[in-house]
Design brief:
Elements (H helix, E strand, L loop, with lengths): L12 H17 L5 H5 L8 H13 L3 E2 L8 E2 L1 H10 L8 H13 L4 H16 L2 E5 L7 E10 L2 E8 L4 E6 L7 H14 L5 H28 L3 E4 L7 E4 L9 H31 L5 E4 L11 E9 L5 E10 L4 H22 L1
Antiparallel strand pairs: 1-2, 3-11, 4-5, 5-6, 7-8, 9-10, 10-11
Helix pairs in contact: 1-3, 5-6, 5-10, 6-10, 7-9, 8-9
Length: about 350
């Protein structure tokens, strides 16, 4: 098997049709598709044995899998991704789906939160999946920040804005964070947050990191020049300052103090890097994408897919997103236009009501 990922363009017509029909059959029924079933639907008359050989080739490429011995085939996650990217035929929005989406928008009052609640409820009902609605990002100055650890790989950031608005966002924290380090990060942010928006606060942190970096360089240079220390991987994320002959430092109290200061500065720099990552994760939004199976890092759910689309304000700036979560055998061709239409409609209505 080649190291290069298989491509639709590399398949011959028969392989492409067998692959497409297996995936479409699986998405429709959720069951493995067998060679005898395909013989009744192929555009050319071929034997079940020929189709089985083609299926085996596709399995060797990592595009199909066989859940049981002598059973039909189902697409792998790689196969589903290839199908979505290269063969998915997105249908037009059905009139009944459009009517139900429009109705959910018009029945809500002037409150944006109420509108988004109804959008989520409508999406769930129409698609029979779970809905995802990310609310517009708030650009007012930050008054208070709080980080709450939910598990080793999930945390909640509570943002209180100067105008009284409160937002909760779930994100994946940088590796190795503890509840204590998160409290420390929040305390630091609250000390400098006054009057700054989230975007501005990220710039303040970047300047702090640069200032610490310069201070470390100056002090460390003195230690290196004196022959007491040497840099390993300078300028990289894993850089270290290795101290030679630590016993000799006992006779130089000034140098010991310098070393302690460098150590303290490194600790400070690492905290600020972590804080900068916290801010990036709290700020980032989702683009128009389909996440399949383990690609869906946001929820860490096995065997699920997410179809998500951003919505924009009048200035064409992404302010939130709507989406649908369900099993990997989602009817992508139907759900993509539903999510896309809903996102466009929400963007217009949120802009009007803001």
């Amino acid at each position: 098997m080649s190291d290069r990922s298989p491509r639709i363009e590399d398949m011959n017509d028969r392989s492409r049709e067998v692959f497409r029909r297996v995936v479409e059959g699986y998405l429709e029924t959720g069951a493995p598709v067998g060679s005898r079933t395909l013989t009744r639907h192929m555009s050319e008359k071929v034997s079940a044995a020929t189709i089985r050989n083609t299926m085996q080739d596709l399995e060797h490429l990592g595009l199909l899998g066989s859940p049981h011995v002598s059973a039909g085939r189902i697409p792998t996650q790689t196969g589903l991704r290839m199908f979505v990217d290269g063969l998915l035929e997105v249908g037009d929005l059905e009139a009944d789906d459009r009517r139900r989406i429009d109705q959910s928008m018009h029945e809500s009052d002037g409150d944006v939160t109420s509108l988004l609640d109804r959008v989520g409820h409508a999406l769930s009902g129409i698609t029979h999946g779970a809905s995802l609605v990310l609310t517009p990002k708030h650009e007012a100055p930050i008054k208070h920040v709080e980080f709450v650890s939910l598990s080793t790989d999930r945390a909640l950031v509570v943002l209180v804005f100067a105008d009284g608005h409160v937002e909760n966002r779930i994100f994946t924290p940088p590796p190795g964070q503890t509840p204590s380090s998160m409290r420390e990060a929040a305390n630091f942010l609250n000390a400098i947050a006054g009057g700054h928006t989230l975007r501005e606060l990220a710039g303040v942190i970047s300047r702090e990191i640069a200032a610490r970096r310069r201070e470390i360089d100056r002090l460390a240079a003195d230690l290196v020049e004196s022959g007491l220390a040497t840099w390993v991987n300078p300028g990289e994320q894993g850089e270290r300052l290795i101290v030679r002959g630590r016993g000799n430092l006992l006779s130089g109290p000034g140098e010991e103090a310098d070393l302690d200061l460098v150590r303290s500065l490194f600790d400070d720099l690492e905290r600020k890097r972590d804080i900068a990552q916290f801010l990036d994760l709290a700020e980032e939004g989702d683009g128009v994408r389909i996440f399949i199976g383990s690609e869906n890092k946001l929820f860490s759910l096995s065997g699920s897919s997410l179809v998500v689309s951003p919505y924009m304000n009048a200035d064409r700036k992404i302010i939130g997103a709507v989406g649908v979560i369900g099993p990997t055998r989602l009817n992508y061709g139907r759900i993509v236009p539903i999510v896309d239409y809903t996102a466009q409609l929400v963007g217009r209505l949120v802009s009007d009501r803001s």
